[in-house]
Amino acid sequence: MSKHRSTTSTTRSSPVIGVLAAAGITVSLMQTLVVPLLPDLPRLLHTTAGNASWTITATLLAGAVATPVIGRLGDLYGKRRLLLVSIALLVLGSVSCALTDSLTAMVVGRALQGMGMSVVPLGISLMRDVVPPERLGGALGLMSSSLGVGAALGLPAAALIAQHADWHVLFWGAAGLGIVMALLVLFLVPGTPATAAGGFDLVGALGVGTGLVCLLLPVSKGADWGWSSPTTLGLFAAAIVVLLAWGWWELRTSAPLVDLRTTVRRQVLMTNLASVAVGFSMYAMSLIAPQLLALPKETGYGLGQSMMAAGLWMAPSGLVMMAVSPYAAKLSAARGPKTSLLLGTLVIAAGYALALPLMGHLWGVLVVSSVVSAGIGLAYAAVPMLIMGAVPVDETAAANGLNSLMRSIGTSASSAVVGVVLAHMTTRMGSVTVPSQAGFRTGFVLGGAGAVLAALVTLCIPGRPPHSPPASRRPSLRSWPFERSRRWPHVSSPGQT
Questions:
Q1: What pLDDT is attached to residue 50?
Q2: Which of the four pLDDT bands, split at 50, 70 and 90, describes residue 380?
Q3: First CA to last CA distance, the chain
Q4: How far, in Å, CA of 57 to CA of 45, rounded?
Q5: Which of 302, 307, 372, 490 fits a 20 to 30 Å CA distance from 100?
Q6: What is the rounded distance in angstroms from the CA atom of residue 115 to the CA atom of residue 94?
Q7: Whole-number Å distance between alpha carbons of 307 and 452
Q8: What are the distances in angstroms from CA 35 to CA 39, 338, 358, 387, 436?
Q9: DSSP characters over 95-131
């Protein structure tokens, strides 16, 4: 009877895992959706190149601000409900972009698409509630790696559509995918009760939003504005002041947006710091490889591929990331998620080391991007297990949202640092200035350094406690108030005073 019940539960969970992973891949497509359009956006939107870059910056900022806020709302009001809200925002943003030739409407639409990035942390947290313990590790790995998978697969698909159809079709397609995902979530993903008590911390939400905008905006635009310009320095100073004030408030309010006492636990803190470094390494490859593939062969080191061909050479890396996640789950179950995260960071570093001798060959770039993606798949599969193993049940969505924010900070820093390197280490090709071979090599070294830093941080994560209960005995939804009061006595259960 027990075996039959387990088999039935596993069978029922398969569509849930598939739908949530597909939703994660769908929202991650938004990262690379406009990349093929970037050279033409100033003409298409009747604006300058600097203004057109806001179509990327708006998505980044909106996603970073919305993720911890929507994660907390998911804990308070139900994760599936906020999952549907996030997908609806993505659809609304896609339709806004599809109907316009205006920069303003395009930036607003891209910001709404960015808010849809909350789907991934919400999906990870929802899996903890509805997926059987024996399948949870693999499901979390697949969901966590969906961001990289969608970004890798989206580039060739977007390039193909942009090359052969009107550019608005890209956004109509994104809206259609969003509607399909919303229907699948509505009919196949079960709802779960809210796991958190208390109200929504509006002051905390405004504080973290303001602080993140002040931090990430100069990181993204500092190269255009000048790193020593009053605007850049002023925003960085404002970020420090606002985030310190926000931290002061969060430590004193009764129902904080983010429980900072939980986030400074060594396991959570070190995992988040490692996520920043892994995000840096992941985005470095996304920045360097397409440019290297597309650079003309006349440079002596460029590989002379079209945008669509470059995307196709990069696409297998997304499939590798997806294929690795089940093995990462098995490794985490056998040796602990810390081991999987450490191995992933070392594989990423090895991939960047291979880049230096292999960057002059098409097959070499394919090998390097696949090895790096395999490492990212191992690392990202372990991160949710480390986070959820150290936070109360009523904070899982908010904690995963904060971890997604850490990844975003890593990718933003990578965009700024690697972008500066490629913009300043250049060579002349006729009348055009292009990144030099030394610039690409330096970018690869920086990506590898980020992976090594992530490995060192991972070593600081505490190992599995010797008397910790196995995953199959983790608190159920029905018993979580009692279990939470036993495991986290400083936090009162719902209904307690």
A1: 75
A2: confident
A3: 41
A4: 16
A5: 307
A6: 12
A7: 31
A8: 8, 34, 25, 32, 21
A9: HHHHT---HHHHHHHHHHHHHGGGHHHHHHHHHHHHS
